[in-house]
Write a structure and sequence with these properties.
Shape: globular
Helix content: 55-70%
Number of strands: 10
Distance between the termini: 72 Å
Strand content: 5-15%
Number of helices: 28
Largest sheet: 6 strands, antiparallel
Radius of gyration: 27 Å
Length: about 750
């Protein structure tokens, strides 16, 4: 089939579909918003925009992917003739998603899950198209003398098209959250000051386009920082609102993929391992979600990759590399104050590169570096002493005054391993970067040094300043560690370059798990947002669906004690074994027996992923519960204390309507229930103390009179037979002011 004719046919189909939706809008009486029973689960409650997604955004997203495939097939006709020739005909089935979504919408009265099925159809179509485009690059990567520009910028084109297509779904499925609304409203203010916008984005009739949650005036306060971010997002905002701003971040993410691929190839790694690392970086959740929410993390990723490029070529092009490095550092600090440590890390890495490449000037370089650090120390000291004009910096230093060593040291492993907020929970393949760091340092010691400097400075700043909020707040996970993503991906290249069937199967399992998590959390983006309850939203749904407690076998740093942290040990064992293997294995992959093809690797990797998931599900149904954190009993009617000042997040019962519940497993007869609780009172109460009651499978177990206003362990004698049971707690009575805080519960024989 003629490629140009095929693309024109798809463009005509997308246009005809949009026109047909206009005609059907008032004729069929279909819902204009997918709000319904599933809204609390998937967040699809945006009023008045469902038809716009169905008629405009969905066909446009598919057309973007077809366009990327069309351009790449013309470029790759020589390097990937088979995949390029097949793309036009194999791309057509993706458009069957459009009538499928219309059919699900029409059946909404009889199909409660119709919005979810629409999302499945749309994401499946985009995934199919992305796989076809990726197949061209994969074939090209296996050809002799593969074109590095094709692989790098073809991958960037694929990333851009996929990011834009997914943004159409995410912008429909979930409201802006956290600081996103602040960024967009302040971007609008900046554009209004330039005469390019109305400046009324905070008004109800305007903010419905990007925010449809509970409103407060604090969501629209003027910001004294991040003007670099506002200026960058401005053109996109003026042209297309929230989607336009996301398009700017999608472009930043796509450029990061292209530059990362070029860097990996320049370091001498083979094409296909570099492609694997590039795609996992771009299409697993941490970077993927940074292109779907208005946060500066994608800019941090792009800045770090550009900085590593500058450090690599600083000997050949010293002046341009230093100039670009300085501009990147300045822009990142202007885009977000939290990225200022990344800027410092980039500058120090640049000085390290100068020191290594120009031995005759090392004394001057050391003096420059020392002067820079002295200037930084003076700035921090002046801000702590209240110097005028440094109020913004002073505000950022507040958490150092009350730093607690234990929680501060735990914050870094929590940001990596925690099931709700940890980087590895959403991109398990990044553990290969931690494991491969030493091997990468053996092969490229200078690049390892640059990465360690950037990562060390930025991560140390996050741990020091954010130990009280290591989880990042009610925002997508991993955003504090975003600058670490390209560094870990770079360190993972030795892992993808090794051979061996078992090792390749492990890499495939970690990669498939990362892509599966990205797919699930893109289908239901509401699941990305967590309160610090200790249970990942997906695992909570899985426990609900299977009447188990699988979440207990995944790491949780909600409470700093050994019981919830114990599941980190398998990760640490995997990390240690992988690091040992990569360090001692001297053989390049090409010298080893031919590894399995992609199909067999996918089957083996998928089997390992399913085995890990099924193991946790089975253990959750069989292993006795014993100890549990009280916040695991949280329901929609329950309340949690905030944790902003690093308080434990207890379950709080304030009125007779408050209750919580969770599934427990009794391995043998249970004879008592221990509860650590306290009476929460604004002032000393003369009235009777509050009473809470416990139930097992809706049958009363007994009541506890919570007398003390300090933490105390209460023991309730009970009789429970072995098996799975539903444990519930409910406030029965209180004086009108008192509440009960629960910390943990323990079932004992």
């Amino acid at each position: 089939m003629n490629i140009s004719r095929s693309w024109l046919g798809k463009a005509a189909l997308a246009l005809a579909w949009a026109l047909a939706m206009r005609l059907l809008l008032h004729r069929l009486g279909l819902p204009d918003s997918p709000a319904g029973d599933l809204a609390p689960l998937i967040g699809l409650d945006r009023p008045g925009f469902w038809w716009k997604f169905l008629g405009d955004w969905a066909p446009l997203g598919l057309l973007f992917m077809s366009s990327a495939g069309y351009l790449l097939s013309r470029w790759a006709r020589t390097d990937a003739p088979r995949s390029a020739a097949r793309f036009s005909s194999l791309d057509w089935p993706a458009y069957a998603a459009l009538p499928l979504m219309l059919g699900f919408t029409a059946l909404h009265a009889h199909t409660p899950a119709w919005p979810l099925w629409c999302g499945v159809a749309y994401l499946a179509a985009l995934s199919w198209q992305a796989a076809l485009v990726a197949a061209m690059l994969w074939e090209a990567g296996g050809s002799p003398g593969a074109d590095g520009r094709l692989l790098a910028w073809g991958g960037a084109l694929l990333g851009l098209a996929l990011y834009l297509g997914l943004n159409f779904w995410v912008a429909q499925a979930v409201s802006t959250c956290g600081d996103e609304s602040l960024y967009l409203i302040n971007t609008d203010r900046l554009m209004a000051a330039l005469g390019l916008s109305s400046g009324q984005a905070h008004m109800p009739e305007y903010r419905l386009h990007f925010y449809w949650g509970g409103w407060s005036k604090s969501l629209a306060k003027p910001l004294a920082e991040s003007w670099g971010l506002f200026a960058l997002l401005g053109p996109g905002w003026v042209l297309a609102g929230r989607l336009g701003a996301l398009a700017i971040l999608a472009l930043a993410g796509a450029l990061a993929l292209g530059l990362f691929c070029r860097l990996g190839l320049n370091l001498g790694y083979r094409e296909r391992p570099v492609l694997a690392a590039t795609w996992l970086l771009g299409f697993s959740l941490p970077l993927l979600q940074l292109t779907q929410h208005v946060y500066p993390g994608a800019l941090g990723v792009l800045g770090v990759i550009l900085g590593l490029h500058c450090c690599q070529c600083i000997q050949r092009r010293t002046a341009p590399a230093l100039l670009l490095l300085g501009l990147i550092a300045i822009f990142l600090a202007l885009a977000k104050m939290r990225l200022a440590p990344v800027s410092l890390g980039l500058i120090l890495a640049g000085l390290a590169a100068l020191y290594l490449h120009f031995p005759l000037r090392r004394r001057k370089i050391v003096l420059i570096g020392s002067g820079l650090l002295a200037l930084l120390a003076a700035l921090l000291l002046a801000s702590l002493l209240g110097a005028p004009g440094l109020g913004l910096v002073t505000n950022k230093l507040w958490s150092i005054k009350g730093v607690q060593l234990g929680p501060m040291l735990v914050s870094l492993p929590a940001m990596l391993f925690d099931q709700q907020f940890g980087l590895l929970a959403y991109a398990p393949w990044l553990i290969l970067g931690l494991a491969g760091a030493a091997r990468f340092g053996r092969e490229h010691p200078r690049q390892l040094l640059y990465g360690l400097i950037i990562a060390g400075v930025s991560v140390s700043a996050v741990v020091l300043w954010r130990w009280v909020q290591w989880e990042g707040g009610f925002t997508p996970p991993g955003r504090f560690l975003a600058p670490l993503l390209p560094i870990l991906a770079l360190w993972s290249l030795p892992a993808f370059a090794r051979g061996g069937r078992l090792w390749r199967s492990l890499c495939a399992a970690l990669g498939l798990a990362s892509l599966a998590v990205a797919w699930i959390f893109t289908l239901i983006p509401q699941w990305r947002f967590h309160r610090r309850t200790g249970i990942n939203n997906f695992l909570a749904w899985l426990d609900d669906a299977l009447s188990g407690t699988a979440h207990r076998f995944w790491p949780s740093f909600n409470e700093i004690s050994w019981q919830p942290i114990l599941p980190v040990l398998p990760w640490l064992l995997l990390l240690a074994a992988s690091a040992y293997y990569l360090w001692r294995d001297p053989k390049p992959a090409a010298a080893q027996p031919p590894a399995w093809g992609l199909g067999r690797l996918g089957i083996a990797g998928g089997a390992l992923v399913l085995a890990a998931l099924l193991t946790s599900v089975v253990l959750g149904r069989l292993v006795p519960t014993g100890y549990m954190e009280a916040e695991n009993l949280r329901t929609a009617e329950s309340r949690l204390y905030g944790n902003y000042y690093n308080r434990r997040v207890q379950l709080v019962l304030r009125s007779p309507a408050d209750h919580g519940q969770t599934m427990v497993v009794a391995g043998r007869d249970i004879e008592f229930l221990e509860v650590r609780a306290h009476r929460v009172a604004d002032r000393t109460q003369a009235g009777p103390p509050p009473v809470i009651a416990f139930y097992m499978d809706d049958k009363p177990l007994g009541q506890i009179l919570v007398v003390k206003t300090a933490w105390r362990i209460y023991r309730l004698p009970i009789s429970v037979s072995p098996g799975r049971h539903l444990l519930q707690v409910r406030m029965l009575s209180h004086s009108g002011r008192d509440a009960v805080g629960l910390d943990w519960l323990r079932l004992g024989p």
